[in-house]
């Protein structure tokens, strides 16, 4: 089985200028949701991991605004690692995907755009609870 097909990197607009580059993101235009919340991670100590959860409904776009880090995604069947290191490339994470972020470079900034406001009830924080939620029940022989 493959990792969820709707997980994908999204190349964002990049306006190049000798004075510096500019990238912009419009909800519903460049990403498949309206942006309800923006947050960022920074000053992550060497060796630390962030994430370690999944969302029931929330969708996200994760960007390495500065530096680099790895995002490990797990849809309950398969894991895949993505290295983010360019500020004009975002990783779209749909609902029901477990995520962990690690290997933060010094000075890195992880920028996240979310489809919903913060709601603790939207989280799976226990991996086994997440796995149970995404598993397709097996039918008994002869049942459909």
Automatic annotation (TrEMBL):
Residues 6-134 form the Sugar 3,4-ketoisomerase QdtA cupin domain. InterPro entries: QdtA_cupin_dom, RmlC-like_jellyroll, RmlC_Cupin_sf. It comes from the Bacteria. Pfam families: FdtA. This is dTDP-4-dehydrorhamnose 3,5-epimerase-like enzyme.
